[in-house]
Amino acid sequence: MRKAKLYVALLHYPMLNKREQVVATSITNLDLHDISRAARTYEAEGFFVVHPAPGQQELIREIQTFWQEGYGGQYNP
């Protein structure tokens, strides 16, 4: 039997707040790190992060760089 391809998406937009208004929620290091590890553990084909705000996209790049090229990547290769 052929194994199904798994893709993971971390969605921070569109989300509903407690008033059921559409909002974008904030990215955290915990989101990116833990879901990335789970995606790797379960051999996901890809992991995508969805956020419309340029500032949050920059934060995602900074966190990704830390874990891949910075101290985090050296400490946990």
How would the blueprint of this fold be written?
Layout: E1 7-11, E2 15-16, E3 22-23, H1 29-41, E4 46-50, H2 54-68, H3 71-75
Parallel strand pairs: 1-4
Antiparallel strand pairs: 2-3
C-alpha Rg (nearest Å): 15 Å
CATH superfamily name?
Answer: SPOUT methyltransferase, trefoil knot domain
Distance between the termini: 33 Å
The second-level CATH architecture is 3-Layer(aba) Sandwich
- Helicity, as a percent range: 40-55%
CATH topology: Alpha/beta knot
* Low confidence ranges: none
The rough form would be described as flat
The largest β sheet comes out as: 2 strands, parallel
Task: Name the structural class.
Answer: alpha+beta
Provide the spatial order of strands within the biggest beta sheet: 1-4
| Secondary structure: number of strands | 4
Strand content range: 15-25%
CATH class: Alpha Beta
Count of DSSP H/I helices: 3
Q: What is the average per-residue confidence, as pLDDT, rounded to a whole number?
A: 92
| Number of spatially distinct domains | 1
Q: Can you characterise this structure?
A:
This protein is an alpha+beta fold and 77 residues long. The chain has a single domain, classed as SPOUT methyltransferase, trefoil knot domain (Alpha/beta knot), CATH 3.40.1280. 43% of the residues lie in helices and 18% in strands. It is built from three helices and four strands. It has helices at residues 29-41, 54-68, 71-75, and strands spanning 7-11, 15-16, 22-23, 46-50. The strands form two sheets. The chain has a two-stranded parallel sheet with strand order 1-4. Strand 2 and strand 3 form a beta hairpin. The protein starts with 6 loop residues before the first strand and ends with a helix.
